Amino acid sequence: MRTTLTFVLILASSLISWSQTPKKKYQGQGGVREVDTSPRPIQQQYRNTFTFEDAGIYISNEFDGARLNGVLMKEDTLIVWITPENVPINPSPWYAFKIWANEPKEALVKFTYQNAKHRYFPKLSHDGKNWQPLDSANYQEFNKGEADFGPNSLPQSVVIKLSLDSDTLWVAGQELQTSKHIFAWIDSLSQQSYISYSDIGESRLGRPMRNMKISEAKQEDKILMVFGRQHPPEVTGWLAMKAFVETLNGDSKLAKKFRKKYTTYVVPLMNPDGADLGHWRHNAGGVDLNRDWSQFHHPETQAVRDFLRKKTVEGAKLYFGVDFHSTWDDIYYTLDSVSITNTPGLMAEWLSSIEDNIPNYEINAKGSVDAPGVSKNFLFREFGAESLVYEVGDNTPRPFVRQKGQVAAEQLMRLLLDRD
């Protein structure tokens, strides 16, 4: 009894110190209240190539992941109109379109929104694969909020200057990552003998819920669950998840040893409909999937729930679950400090080891179990798993996103193997 009490006090002290972060750090969202997640209608996006013959400019949303609801030309400026799939909705106004011209010229594009302000700094690509941020000299904000951070700091609209020619220029809020991109990534990893995949269900519109298995274990009794992209614009979370999974899949002695003990399942695209339809936040059923982990009104959350239930019936135990997201800045949403899981003390050790192995890095974490509709609470409530929502900042530098994902995977493997 004394040992258990001592452990709880140590864990509580560790996680409380992380949750009471300095004011200079992102404080995270407040309490998540339970909402009705019954399906709601969405507004379908009209797909079109908008033609401005006098200017010799063309702008299109006829591709997966696009979001462009209207455009007009006023004097020398293209005014684009971006609307959500329905409301109310989180202020995550995704946009993506292609633009080109008959001959080389510069064009001004003004972004305007319904029920939102401009959030994502523009990324540009000439092939839809390789992306770079817009030169900040070609970016101007209007009616910017007075806050230093978060939604109240955002501008009402922005104007960007683009250099156009007959080659297609892609413009998007983040790097475009649709089901095509992510399923191709799964296919590439599945060339390894110890990686396979299957579809554990379908989305509301019939897209596959693809689940990748990474394992060299003789017996599938210890499992991890990794998933992400419940919210389509949250690409930095996907990039961290990609680095995390590729590290588990790596050639290091640590990874090889880990795969012989633990089986990892990965559903990298929880909301394939939303990603391909260019949604701001919701699935094709018009709701935030990360509020549906207690009511299970939607096939996407049902697929993961039923898969994990089947695995536990077959004798597997879920040791760790991580759900990758993006938000205003990097933060780890953990369970509270006194929830006893299948791996007691793992979270505190893991966060400390990540901090210790990234130079000049301070962990920013916030613990709670008061959100029944959120993924981490479901994983703990039903399976006793240590679990978290791993949030990456919208503007976190991409090399650091990869580094965090790699170190997180390395330290998790090490700590779990140390417990065997």
Shape: globular
Q: State the assembly state of the protein chains.
A: single chain
User: Mean pLDDT across all residues, rounded?
Assistant: 93
Q: What pattern of helices and strands is seen along the backbone?
A: HEEEEEEEEEEEHEEEHHEHHEEHEHEH
Radius of gyration: 22 Å
The first-to-last residue Cα distance is 23 Å
Number of β-strand runs: 19
Helix content range = 25-40%
Percent in strands: 25-35%
Q: What do these coordinates show?
A:
There is one protein chain. This protein starts with a helix and ends with a helix. The chain is an alpha+beta fold and 420 residues long. An eight-stranded mixed beta sheet has the order 12-13-15-14-16-19-17-18, sandwiched between helices. It has a six-stranded antiparallel beta sheet with strand order 1-2-5-11-7-8, with no helix packed on it.
Note the topology.
Blueprint: H1 2-19, E1 49-52, E2 57-60, E3 70-74, E4 77-82, E5 96-101, E6 105-113, E7 123-125, E8 132-133, E9 139-144, E10 155-164, E11 169-172, H2 179-189, E12 195-202, E13 208-214, E14 222-228, H3 235-248, H4 253-261, E15 263-267, H5 272-277, H6 299-313, E16 317-327, E17 331-334, H7 346-356, E18 365-367, H8 375-383, E19 386-393, H9 398-418
Parallel strand pairs: 4-6, 14-15, 14-16, 16-19, 17-18
Antiparallel strand pairs: 1-2, 2-5, 3-4, 5-11, 6-10, 7-8, 7-11, 9-10, 12-13, 13-15, 17-19
